[in-house]
Design brief:
Length: 80
């Protein structure tokens, strides 16, 4: 199972790198199951690790609107 999780995290990071390539990134938020936050942070490229602004716990496969709500709440908490 650990190998599957590690492979999945590496794939996520690869897709994230492709998505942000050529874009200016102000900040990064991590969402998901809290027990994976440490592994996700470690897998982030160093430049994105430095832009980490917050984390939020959520279930997987939630509707986009719910994900955006989590992100907005986390962002608002960081701005206070």
């Amino acid at each position: 199972i650990d190998n599957q999780i590690e492979g999945h995290l590496k794939l996520i990071m690869q897709k994230a790198q492709e998505f942000i390539q050529g874009k200016h990134i102000n900040g990064v938020f991590i969402g998901g199951h809290q027990e994976f936050f440490h592994e996700i942070k470690n897998e982030l490229p160093k430049d994105l690790q430095q832009k980490l602004r917050g984390e939020f716990v959520t279930e997987l496969n939630i509707p986009d609107e719910e994900l955006v709500t989590h992100c907005k709440s986390t962002l608002n908490a960081c701005l206070k």
